[in-house]
Design a protein that fits this description.
heterodimer; A: Aspartate Aminotransferase, domain 1; seven-stranded mixed beta sheet; globular; B: alpha+beta; Sufe protein. Chain: A
């Protein structure tokens, strides 16, 4: 790790290393050539959605232009070809997560639908009044609201793991919340608002000791680090394709095959049944049991291409590069007068959330935008986190594999400009 | 600094944003409402005291938000004092046009109080920033909600 970090440090500016050619990577993303208000686009909103590399765009165009059809239905050439490409993507995702089988990969619309699927299908069947679901204080709304809806329906109890002033997940407090009634621990792998990497190995080990299952929200983790669901020994893992340089409208629920096959269907319709009569319908096994209706075919193919793209670069190189940028951004932004970083956890990934004295995040966002710098401002769909730190909103720079130190400089310069402008 | 930003964040706006006028709570208001902009977390409360004839005797606000929403709320409390509700609604109509329509002519504010519109014209820079129009109109929507007897209003779903 030290070796990697120093490799990044000896190559100031564009961060190129032998293993990681930033110029070539940036050339793969057509949008990065865009100018915004006369400035080069500096895209630092990857936590909301990442840009798409040429291979993803091409794979989707090729599907539409040469072999597109519905899947799992036709005897004709296009349908067979589309089915092959669609199922091949499932295989790519399975290998990406080191799943034990392709059957463990369920295509969903995104992580939100994946969590709702688990709440509706697994939760409704297995949770009863008084059963406890443990979440953390830094969940995205998508990992809070589905459980609140289940609470309203079934009378389950939600427990919330606190975080400290730096945004660290408090393992000791977590341990105290676990008990005989804990049935599920549903936490984020990496916080979207703070960048905190949650010690998930420990979280999973302690939950399993109490006989509880664990669901991890991997949206902010899979773009930045290798995830091995078997090594983690987790039970459910979800992520969205569009944050992993893939298209919108496609996401993944990974679940252990035995768990998935013991769950009732989520939605009813075509493609998820073995046979239908008006008296009785039998359902397919996972994953098709959970994929009613025509899926997002070309989006799934695009996600497969995205997985190939990041896998070819490799997470050793991606993570070393991004840590270099994150470290540089943390130092550089800390030097901006009146700027306070929200979230200084011991282990972080690719995200710097901050506030500036006397300047509302929304005003900051508008001013830096005119310098071509795209950052997210607001509550990041994580209002409990904002409340925890006593702020209504923060600005957030979230990095992807194509971001550079020069882009961090552009952000810092724009922030200085905003500060001068507001007379701060 | 780019010109559109200078137009948006004029010194007057920054001043109102830093030291908003009528930033207080009315003890026994005739009506009040909470306004939220869930996208950026702006939250404010607008209080109104109306006399028997429906004239605004006093109005005030409290809350937190960006410079634009704070300045707009502050300026609104200044221009609406002493106005009838009908005049207030008309003024909001003109103000909304000013914030959204390229063909708005400040010299012909369509039957509105010319002095009030001149003061509000400090905010016309938002026209170049469509995403910020909601910030400028939040206080006004909240004022209207209060008068209609609605407790709460959100910019999501509002034009």
């Amino acid at each position: 790790m030290n070796q990697k970090a120093s490799a990044v440090q000896i190559a100031p500016g564009d961060n190129s290393t032998a293993a990681f050619d930033i110029k070539r990577i940036r050339a793969d993303f057509p949008i990065l050539k865009q100018k915004v208000y006369g400035h080069p686009l500096v895209y630092l909103d990857n936590g909301a959605s990442a840009q798409k590399p040429r291979p993803v765009i091409d794979a989707m165009s090729e599907a539409y232009e040469t072999y597109y059809s519905n899947v799992h239905r036709g005897v004709h050439w296009t349908s067979q070809r589309s089915t092959e490409a669609f199922e091949a993507s499932r295989g790519k995702v399975a290998r990406f997560l080191n799943a034990a089988s392709d059957n463990e990969i369920v295509f969903t619309r995104g992580a939100t639908e994946a969590i709702n699927l688990v709440a509706a299908a697994w939760g409704r069947k297995n949770l009863n009044a008084g059963d406890e679901v443990v979440i953390s204080h830094m969940e995205h709304h998508s990992n809070i609201v589905p459980w609140q809806m289940l609470r309203a329906e079934k009378g389950i109890v939600l427990k919330v793991v606190p975080i400290d002033d730096d945004g660290n997940f408090l393992v000791d407090e977590y341990r105290k919340l676990l008990g005989p009634k804990t049935k599920l621990v549903a936490v984020t792998h990496v916080s979207n608002a703070l960048g905190t990497v949650v010690p998930v190995e420990e979280v999973i080990r302690l939950a399993h000791q109490k006989g509880a299952l664990v669901l991890l929200d991997g949206c902010q983790a899979v773009p930045h680090m290798a995830v091995d669901v078997q090594a983690l020994n987790v039970d459910f893992y979800v992520f969205s394709g569009h944050k992993l340089y893939g298209p919108t409208g496609i996401g993944i629920l990974w679940g252990r095959e035995d768990l998935l096959n013991a769950m009732p269907p989520y939605q009813g319709g075509g493609d998820m049944i073995s046979s239908v009569t008006f008296e009785k319908t039998t359902f397919k096994k996972a994953p098709h049991r959970f994929e009613a209706g025509t899926p997002a075919i070309v989006e799934a193919i695009g996600l497969g291409a995205a997985v190939d793209y990041v896998s070819a670069i490799g997470f050793d190189a991606i993570s070393a590069h991004e840590h270099g940028v994150l470290q540089y951004a943390t130092e550089k932004l800390s030097a901006v007068k009146g700027l306070r970083i929200i979230g200084r956890a011991r282990e972080k990934a690719a995200i710097v959330s901050f506030v500036v004295d006397g300047i509302h995040a929304h005003d900051l966002g508008t001013i830096v935008d005119r310098a071509g710098v795209a950052v997210r401002v607001g509550h990041h769909c994580a209002q409990p986190v904002m409340e925890r730190f006593g702020v209504a909103a923060t600005a957030r720079a979230s990095f992807g594999l194509y971001n550079t130190r020069a882009e961090v400089d552009a952000l810092a310069d724009a922030l200085d400009e905003a500060r001068r402008f507001f007379g701060r | 600094m780019r010109d559109e930003l200078r137009d948006l964040y004029q010194e007057v706006i920054l001043d109102h944003g830093r030291s908003p006028r009528n930033f207080r709570r009315l003890e026994n208001p005739t009506c009040l409402a909470h306004g939220n902009n869930p996208i950026c977390g702006d939250m404010l409360v607008v209080y109104l005291d109306l006399d028997q004839a429906g004239r605004i005797e006093d109005l005030a606000f409290q809350g937190q938000g960006c410079a634009i929403s704070m300045a707009s709320a502050s300026m609104m409390t200044e221009v609406l004092k002493g106005k009838t509700l009908a005049e207030a609604n008309k003024l909001f109509e003109c103000f909304h046009d000013m914030c959204t329509r390229d063909d708005f002519d400040p010299a012909k504010p369509g039957g509105c109080d010319v002095d009030a519109m001149e003061r509000l014209s400090m905010l016309s820079g938002v026209r170049e920033f469509p995403i910020r129009v909601k910030c400028a109109t939040l206080a006004w929507h909240t004022m209207q909600a209060a008068v209609k007897g609605e407790q709460e209003i959100s910019t999501e779903g509002a034009p």
